Every structure is written in C-alpha cells, then in structure tokens.
Amino acid sequence: MRAVWLRRMLVVPAALVLDSLASGIGERVSLARGYERILHFAEEILWTDTISGGVRFAVAGAALPILAGRAARLALGDFGSEALAGAACVGLGHMRERAVASAAVLEQEGPGGAVAPGDVSPARVAVESIAASFAQDVCGSLLYLNAAGADGLLAYAAAQAIGARAEHAEPSNVRFGVIPGGLGVASGWLPSRAAALAVCAAAQAPTLTLYARARRDAMAYSSPNAGIVLAAFAHALGIGLGTDAVPGPGPSRYRFGTQVAAATVDIRRALALAERAAVLIAFWLMAADAGLWLLGLRRRRV
Question: Residues near 279 by Cβ (< 8 Å), separated by ≥ 6?
Fold first, then answer.
C-alpha cells in the first residue's frame, strides 16, 4: 500500500510531461473523437426514452474505457498504464494549443477584441472554454488518476463523455438522460470545486475571498459544476463571464465578475492562470501522496 502512494506521486508529473509531449501529435483528439463516434453508435442502438435505456447506454459506454485500462495494466504494469492514461486524458497541452490559436486569430482580426456588455464575444467564449477544459480535463483527470489509477481515470473520462452526450438529447428525451447526465454531474462535482480553489489560489488576490465570491455566485447558476469554475476565473481575472446564464433585458447580463467584457488579452491571461493552477493541483496531490508514503514508513518502523 505504501508503494502505491509513491507511485501515484511520481505518475502525476509523468502524466503532465507526456501530455505536453503528445499535445502536438493529435492522438488525444483522435481518440476522443473515436470514442464519441462509439457513443453515438451505442446511443442509436440502445436508445429508448426510459431510465433503463439510459442505464444500458451508460454501462455500455463505460465498459470500453474500463476494459482498455485493464488491458493497459496487463501490458504495461501499474505505472505504465497510469502514465499512458494520464497522457491520453489530461488535456493541458490541448487546452494550451486551442487557447493560443484562438488568441492568434483574434489578434489578427484587430486589437482589443472586447464587445459591449451583454454581447457574446469570441474572447469570452475562449476564456470560458479554458475554464471548462481546466476543470474537466486537467483537474478532474489528475484527481481521478491520483485517487484511483488508470481504471478510475478512464471511468471518469467515460462518465464525462456520456454525460455530455446526454446533455445534447432532445427535450423530450429527459428520461433517457437522467442516469448518464447524473454520472457526469456527480463525477465532476469534486474536480470543479478543486479547480475553482486552485484558480483562486493561483490568482494575485486573497484566496479565501475569491473562493467565497465564486461559491456565492455559483449558487444561482444553472449548472452545479460549471458555475463555480466560471465564477472563479471571472473574479480572478477581473472580467465578466457567464453572459448567457441570465435572461432578460438590461445594460449588463453578466452573472459572474465585473462589468468588464473579456478581451483578446484575457485569453492568454486565463491560460496562464490555468497553467499556474494546474501546477498547484499537481503539487497538492504530490504533497498528499508523499505525506501518506512517509506515514506508512513511520508506521512500519514503529
């Protein structure tokens, strides 16, 4: 058991390094798209607008990643399978590529990139995409990899993909999406809050004050997980996010942060903030693993 914590402490930085090396190759994107096609095929076969239909879809969708994790463990061992799963699921490198590309396009179109409050700007969409990717792909993957190894990480990735698939169902298919959507929300509850805390800690402001504001704002948001992450980024960057969450007229419909609209420069600021927060998450996990490993050694000597 003591060796488990030492291995997990080493696999967290290994997963980040492998993700960075593989980010320009494109395998992660192709794997994700291939799995989405499999989910689409399974949905077409198993769909019935019933809760049992949703259960069958969730089980079928989760079976393949879990079996893949078991096969990788047999072929590569515990450390190899965990490092490979981390490289496939941790999306820090891919998030960086998309953010830099979006910022470059907007910088070519013209300076600033800000729009009037209440409008949906490309810069705001890019910042919100960074926030969502950081919480789900980076923070969630590292947490589940550290806590449950390759099997747990792949099961988490499957739950997120299945939940996202259920969210795109027609409004009349509410029963089919109950279980798949619930899996996505439940598995993302802890990562979203850990991500928000890491973002607040990485910002140049009092951590507890920012986190308290993020929690307060998230209580009124429609999504139980996305709201707290968007609020944390908004308050940490000093901009407004979540425009579409509040219907109705008014000079500003920002749910989180200030009345300042996101500009092109905020994309790079959000990326830098997410990278600092990712380092904090990795450090926290490694410190916890090291503490548990040392505690095991101390008990052994006693």
Answer: 202
Q: 286: part of which helix (H) or strand (E)?
A: helix 264-301
E strand segments, the chain = 240-241, 256-257
Q: Residue type for 41, please?
A: F
The secondary element (H helix, E strand) that includes residue 121 is none
Which residues have C-beta within 8 Å of that of residue 111, sequence separation ≥ 6?
A: 264
Residue 289 CA: distances (Å) to CA of 96, 148, 224: 27, 13, 29
The alpha carbons of the chain give a radius of gyration, in whole angstroms, of 20
DSSP 172-238: GGTTTTHHHHHHHHHHTHHHHHHHHHHHHHHSSS-HHHHHHHHHHHHTTSSSTTHHHHHHHHHHHHT
302 residues of the chain, pLDDT tens digit each: 556 767 878 888 888 888 887 765 555 555 666 777 788 888 778 777 788 888 888 888 888 888 888 888 888 888 888 888 888 888 888 899 999 999 999 988 765 444 444 456 899 999 999 999 999 999 999 999 999 888 889 889 989 988 887 766 555 567 888 888 888 899 999 999 999 999 999 998 899 999 999 998 887 777 789 899 999 999 999 998 875 444 444 444 456 877 788 899 999 999 999 999 999 999 999 998 888 877 776 666 65
Q: What is the rounded CA–CA span in Å between residue 15 and residue 132?
A: 20
79 burial (CB, 10 Å; 0-12 / 13-18 / 19+) is middle
Lookup: tokens for 266: 């905020």
Reported residue count of the chain is: 302
